[in-house]
Amino acid sequence: MIAPAAADLPRVLIVDDESGILDSLRILLKSEGFAPHVAQGGRQGIEKLAELQPDIVLTDVRMPDVTGVQVLSAARQSDPDMPVILMTAQATLQSAMQAVNEGAFYYIQKPFRNDELVAILRRAAEHRKLRIENQELKQEIRRRERNTAGRPIGRSKSWNDVLRLAETVAPTDSTVLITGESGTGKEVIARYIHELSSRAPNNFLSINCGALPESLLESELFGHVKGSFTGAVKDKTGLFAAADQGTFFLDEIGETTPSTQVKLLRVLQQREIIPVGATESVPVNTRVLAATNRELEEEIKRGGFRADLYYRLNVIAVHLPPLRQRSDDIPLLAESFLNRSAMLRGEEPKVLGEDTLDAMMAYGWPGNVRELENALERAVILSSGHVVRPEALPERVTSRRAEPLVSERTPVTPTLEAIERAYIQWVLQNEGGNKSRAADMLGIDPSTLYRKLARYGDA
User: Which domains does the chain carry?
Assistant: First the structure.
């Protein structure tokens, strides 16, 4: 049997302030088929993260200079998929829960048995390997699922109009604002624009502006300098700088706060950033693409979005039609999702029964392409045979309403408000009355949905 090369062994960074523990763990891990590297204390551990890029981090919690939780945070910033195992001699249920909430892979109490630690490390190494393989497979799937022209899937006129506009603006450096309901494929179009541009060999980075609190969002966007806030143990490069010479996609731009909007406006106007805690600006050459499912002009009227930023973003506007307006694309999209599922499972692709496709074509898909993908993922799991039957689809897709939205008592020409109210009631019913899910399907903020229901007297 040939021993694996050192380059193939899982790299483990061991962080502890006691040299005796470092030596014993290094010897143990080396004998068990790992490639161990040691760091004396948390500060050195964080410094070695970027240098080593380990597969796993094994760190003590209580260290005098920098704690293990801070090492965990730095590791998560460096690589969100990196497993981090925390060791402590003073474990409590509360501290264990905190560690897991912070993203730790495992929390082990000292003293521990060697075989227990090795088993945890092997699970972490397998977890790491599977995540990497999954990412590589998804990239391969994305490459294969495009047609021969390299265009995102779709044959409807409205979708092809979108693609032609994207192809026209791609060679320029103009800022593009991509609008459309939630789940219509805004990031797909952003990536397509990047791939057709001269910036394609460089980074395409993206961030969901609504997923982080303001303080963390600004650090992610612009970076920070060491000591600028608690936990800033070293300088951090922001995504604008990391996307230099490439493309930066700001998803859900309408969720940003006024303070962040001011800083984004500066980037677009001056082409420079100021990291959090810094006093000097840094020039950046990054193309900005932004997306939102909000009506930004309405947000401007309400004072929730800056008009000057909107006009800077809206140099080129690309609006994505909802799936209900491009139903011709449903068969192609469904085939693509079924092929992707089969590839991930190592199986032959399933096919849609004629009655299944009929039900899908008749449904309105308020959650758009994302809802279609999720529905087919469910259907594949529930289908034992080669053909996907209607009963494998979610009930909301196949059910028929007992009472139509438009009855004989409805005016021949209903008002827009009446149509909107009926559609919202329909989505709410399909989501079992869950207002959060209904708002997501409608592509609006939950607060907007509550306001509309209150106005209709349906709250």
Answer: 6-135 (3.40.50.2300), 157-321 (3.40.50.300), 323-400 (1.10.8.60), 404-459 (1.10.10.60)
